[in-house]
Amino acid sequence: MKNGADRRIAEASSLAELEGDRALLGRTSTAERVADILRDRIATGFFPPGTRLSEDSVKGALGVSRNTLREAFRLLTHERLLVHELNRGVFVRVVTVDDLNDIYRVRALVECGAVRGLGKPPYPLEAVESAVLAGERAAQARAWQDLSTANIRFHQGVVALAGSPRADELMRGVLAELRLVFHVMDDPRRFHAPYLVRNRHILEVLQSGDALEAERLLGSYLEDSRLQLADAYAQRVSES
């Protein structure tokens, strides 16, 4: 854990970089746009779990009003990415093991359901294939955070096969919350690299038109991932 001085230095550096996002807001800044920026920053680990988001500092960095920022905080709290602690402020949420297990229950329902609902092949697998290739390139380059992102995109691509904007939106929130777990882990390679081969296998089975087998493989994949991540995460959090 960082000491007070280290935290202040890290916060100053983060806020200076956050000022670069001000241009993304345009002249008609809204709470939704602010929430989008903060959500992306949380997802990439810019604001790690447990980080306090200073209202004055963040609104100053982005050049938005206090009301706009508070509404953005409210939206992200509803998405379970932030938590408001009475008399302490707003923090990036630290996920519990029970939360993690629930995230995987939802993932199994949505991802396996998307594959189960596929009609006759061929299926529109461009996004899934692109994510698999990106993951393989990232692994070859030993770019482990890029590998994590590619793996997330693989699962988003699987859900997109359902052709449901609501399912896509639900999955975006679920995977953003899962990112909070990944950022606590010390070794992202350990948790993503072993699934590259399985991503490729699922893609090839879908390309063959066997949705039933792809669903079976995906269900087993998610359960193995849940067990591995839950055990490691529980140990990591207990050491923090």
UniProtKB/TrEMBL annotation:
Keywords: DNA-binding, Transcription, Transcription regulation
PROSITE patterns assigned: HTH_GNTR
Residue ranges of every copy of the HTH gntR-type domain listed in the record: 28-95
SUPFAM superfamilies hit by this protein: GntR ligand-binding domain-like, Winged helix' DNA-binding domain
InterPro entries linked to this entry: GntR_C (IPR011711), TF_FadR/GntR_C (IPR008920), Tscrpt_reg_HTH_GntR (IPR000524), WH-like_DNA-bd_sf (IPR036388), WH_DNA-bd_sf (IPR036390)
Protein name: GntR family transcriptional regulator
Native species: Streptomyces milbemycinicus
Lineage, broadest ranks: Bacteria, Bacillati, Actinomycetota, Actinomycetes, Kitasatosporales
